[in-house]
Amino acid sequence: MSTQTLSQEEVKLIWSQVKEELKLKISPAAFNTWVLLNPLTTIEVIDQTKARGTISSPSAFHATNLKKNLYSHLKTSIENVIKKKVELDIRVSDPASVLASQKQMFGSSNKDNWGWGGSKSGVTTANNESHSRQPTYSNGFYGNGSNKVGSPTVEELFSQSNIQSSSFDRTLSAVRQAGLKMDYQFESFAVSGSNEMAHAAATAVAKRPGEAYNPLFFYGGVGVGKTHLMQAIGHYILKQDPGLKVIYCTGEEFTNDIIDAIRNKKATTFKKKFRSAHTLLIDDIQFIGGKNAVQEEFFHTFNALTKLSSQIVLTSDRPPSEINLLEDRLKSRFEAGLMVDIQQPSAELKTAIVLIKAKSSGLSMPIKLAEQIASRVDGARKIEGVIATIRSEVELKKKEMDEELITSILEKEKNDSKDKRIKLRPQKVIKKVSSYYQINQTALKGKRRNKEIVEARHMAMFILKNDLEMSYVDIGKWFSNRDHTSVMHAKDKIEQLIKEDVSVQEDYHKIKGELVNISR
């Protein structure tokens, strides 16, 4: 079996992302002492699902404590970044060689605290004075030979309060529970004339929820940043107080929750969930138009939250007055707050968005290439898709990021978009997916959980949602009456894999291409 050893540049990129995730899981003291001093130095890809990694420690003392206290954190974070199961080995290396490796990977001018060889250690005394330390070996471990006043002891660094820093863990947990995407924050939002007012309004609401503008109603076309700003509000609020209850959902998900509550006689549970929110964020609220029972429940939820001074943020593809079959009493409530029309971004703003998305994906993109993408791609979501494709081509296929590569990707994107919607019945899609993966249709629609069947089933659900634009509930009916949340999980799973796994990306495009040909 042939394996592939990743380059130092690739390991650097992976370790950088791993560190960002670990910062959310452990305390600054533990991070500076046990993560920065023990870098990931090699990654060997075994196959599509497995890899082998090496952490280099400057001493047996570091290696032993890492294995005992942080091994699971390190392993899980690396697996989250590379999307493979990892055999993680922690080895003792000569401190000088580890430092040399880190300088090669991160540069000698890097401001991280290495903790040896005369560089900054980050140890602070009670008087807040920084002290550099020369490495000495004392009592069989690597240290400074003494425990300076104010320096954390090993026990303190590995205490539960440090390993699982409550502030970091609670915020991350709250963000996940709220349903927010990590990259939809104010810091990654590009501001220009077309969205300046929307950004200012979102910032004001985030700083004074329930007071500034309530409700806040964003409307505009696809890909103008409505969802990004809405979720950025949620992120900001939870950073200030992770104990607050923030709920993000789409209009369709809100509708499905009501249907489930009625069907399962859990109306009380539904009301308790939504009417106790500190901040309610609902995307694509136009979806509830014409659904009388849903509008009735949302009307009462809206009133209950405003009485509690809870913040409500809504988005739509059109202003309230133009939402078909929306009750007048809801229109008047939506219009009572601040309504902001977000226009399509200018060429300059789209270029900035491309650069921001590229940077967040670990790509250093020349502005000329960013301008090329911005001139031919509309909307932030489509830009994200193009960036994901570029990343897979550069990192996995080892192609050079140049004008030729960008042109070929954009041409392919253009051809794929000529007939975005597949004009077929669901049964045809299921039949084609079954044939492609060589799986029986009955098994695909059934309850079996074999890995191959689950992957094919997820792909079928994704296509039915993404390309046929079916509702989650309707898709679930085709697969043994599965709950809509199962379909949502499948859609999110494939969406993520398409960005990260070239083979899944190719599977999707091949299946979709065949379906498009059939539907013509």
Describe the structure.
The chain is α/β, with parallel strands linked by helices. It has four domains: 159 residues, 2-Layer Sandwich (GMP Synthetase, Chain A, domain 3), CATH 3.30.300.180; 168 residues, Rossmann fold; 71 residues; 94 residues, DnaA protein, C-terminal DNA-binding domain (Chromosomal Replication Initiator Protein Dnaa, Chain: A), CATH 1.10.1750. 54% of the residues lie in helices and 11% in strands. Strand 5 and strand 6 form a beta hairpin. Helix 8 packs parallel to helix 9. The longest helix has 23 residues. It starts with a strand and ends with a helix. About 12% of the residues have low confidence.
Spell out the key features of this protein.
520 residues, alpha/beta, GMP Synthetase, Chain A, domain 3, Rossmann fold, five-stranded parallel beta sheet, globular
Chart the SSEs and their pairings.
Elements: E1 4-5, H1 8-23, H2 28-35, E2 40-45, E3 50-57, H3 60-82, E4 85-92, H4 95-106, E5 136-138, E6 141-143, H5 154-157, H6 160-163, H7 166-178, H8 196-207, E7 216-220, H9 226-240, E8 246-250, H10 251-263, H11 267-275, E9 279-283, H12 292-307, E10 311-316, H13 328-335, E11 338-342, H14 347-360, H15 367-376, H16 380-395, H17 403-417, H18 426-437, H19 441-445, H20 451-466, H21 472-478, H22 484-500, H23 502-519
Parallel strand pairs: 3-4, 7-10, 7-11, 8-9, 9-10
Antiparallel strand pairs: 1-2, 2-3, 5-6
